[in-house]
Amino acid sequence: MKTIKVVAAVICDNMKKPTRIFATQRGYGDLKGGWEFPGGKIELGETPEQALKREIMEELDTKIEVGEMIHTIEYDYPTFHLSMDCFLCEVTEGHLELKEHEAAKWLNKNQLDSVAWLPADVTLIEMVRGLMV
């Protein structure tokens, strides 16, 4: 099975004391409509942090600070294996303009279960909830 290596940004309002995180609804592909943490594939020669900064600028026209790595998710979809490094991030410049996603929401700790997360992303929710105040 083919492995796809990606990075995901758990964008929060404050990396020291997160009270809200930013979720996006996928606007394309087989997983269209599912909710996810934004990000994408790591290109040749990029570090995960560089890839994440590039992907968020491409997808959301926003600059971010990449903080600590939360977890690496390993998940088997029917046609590929996903390896996803997830980082806590914070906006430094921009307004999170949707360029590829259908919708987006800021979610507090009690709202994390209010969206239909993609299967790989759902495995991160309890860890994210534990980081939030």
Side by side, the strands of the main sheet go 4-1-6-5
Q: What's the N-to-C terminus distance?
A: 39 Å
- The CATH superfamily title: Nucleoside Triphosphate Pyrophosphohydrolase
The gross shape turns out to be globular
CATH architecture descriptor text: Alpha-Beta Complex
Output the helix-strand order.
EEEEHEEEHH
Count of alpha/pi helices: 3
Largest sheet: 4 strands, mixed
Summarize the structure in words.
The protein is α+β, with helices and mostly antiparallel strands and 133 residues long. It contains 3 helices and 7 strands. A hairpin with a 4-residue loop joins strand 5 (62-76) and strand 6. The model has no long low-confidence stretch (mean pLDDT 97).
Nutshell version of this structure?
The chain has 133 residues and is α+β, with helices and mostly antiparallel strands. The chain contains three helices and seven strands. The chain is globular.
Key terms for this structure?
3 helices; alpha+beta; 133 residues; 44% strand; three-stranded antiparallel beta sheet
